[in-house]
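quick q for whoever's on today - can somebody do inverse folding on this one?? i tried earlier but teh output was garbage lol. tokens:
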């Protein structure tokens, strides 16, 4: 939460909790170079090399932050629409019975493509785009990436969803060769639905522009995310954001599109379910041409 100082002090400064600091904010005479949260504390490193630890609820004075013109790292989890609206797990289910549905609004592919993301990405930007396998295979993910100015989809990182408890289907499938290794090694899979096989994963697609750098060899991680769902339909694991920060540690500023919950330190955001200070205005597609 950010609030202006006393109107009697019109010096362009604001009061902010340490938990809401971002890389690039200016405290006093120095700009923040890096932010590392550690439990109830946050370690802030300034551009002169000095590092100071603050409690998350410490109130600090920062200069009025300006919105970056372009972003180096973009992370998006679009609210994809599904053709199968008769399923109770579809986010925009049309079922009229008493079965629970995912219950959140979705946008058409055209609406997602029309968001003015292209203008927010630097020429060397990288996009991490969440997709279901359906939207990847039918070309929807590629259409969104291309509309946003990213010519190439270079690699997909599967998120294998783990369960805090044993799946209801565990006993039925544990002896099958395709599943037995996971169960023998102690992995408890979050079993979903599906018309052919039951889904246990989604995919995080890395998309590049012509000048997007490759990942430094020392920062390359195994290409899989093994993590439970953090709660809430379609919520994504914090491990994905941590992976992005490791792969591209100095490729900011960072923008999370379709953000949900409190924005992570060092990230700007856009999202109707996001909490805290949103530096960007609400993005809306341009009006249709006459």
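ok took a stab at it. sequence:
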């Amino acid at each position: 939460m950010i609030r202006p100082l006393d109107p009697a002090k019109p010096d362009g400064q604001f009061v902010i909790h340490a938990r809401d600091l971002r890389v690039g904010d200016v405290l006093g005479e120095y700009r923040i170079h890096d932010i590392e949260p550690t439990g109830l504390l946050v370690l802030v490193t300034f551009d002169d090399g000095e590092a100071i630890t603050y409690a998350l609820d410490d109130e600090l004075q920062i200069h009025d932050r300006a919105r970056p013109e372009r972003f180096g790292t973009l992370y998006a989890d679009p609210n994809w629409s599904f053709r199968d609206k008769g399923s109770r797990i579809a986010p925009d289910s049309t079922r009229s019975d008493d079965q629970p549905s995912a219950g959140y609004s979705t946008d058409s592919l055209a609406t997602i493509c029309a968001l003015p993301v292209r203008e927010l990405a630097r020429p060397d930007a990288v996009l991490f785009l969440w997709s279901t396998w359906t939207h990847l295979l039918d070309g929807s993910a590629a259409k969104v990436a291309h509309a946003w100015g990213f010519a190439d989809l270079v690699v997909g990182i599967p998120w294998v969803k783990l369960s805090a408890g044993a799946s209801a289907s565990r006993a039925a499938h544990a002896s099958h060769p395709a599943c037995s290794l996971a169960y023998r090694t102690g992995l408890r899979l979050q079993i979903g639905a599906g018309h052919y096989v039951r889904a246990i994963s989604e995919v995080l697609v890395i998309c590049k522009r012509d000048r997007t750098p490759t990942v430094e060899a020392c920062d390359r991680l195994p290409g899989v995310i093994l993590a439970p769902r953090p709660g809430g339909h379609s919520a994504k694991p914090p491990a994905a954001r941590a992976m992005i920060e490791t792969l591209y540690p100095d490729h900011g500023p960072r923008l999370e599109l379709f953000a949900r919950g409190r924005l992570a330190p060092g990230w700007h955001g856009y999202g109707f379910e996001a909490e805290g200070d949103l530096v960007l205005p609400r993005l809306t597609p341009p009006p249709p041409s006459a």
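fwiw The chain has two domains: 2-63, 71-275. also The radius of gyration is 21 Å. so keep that in mind when u check it
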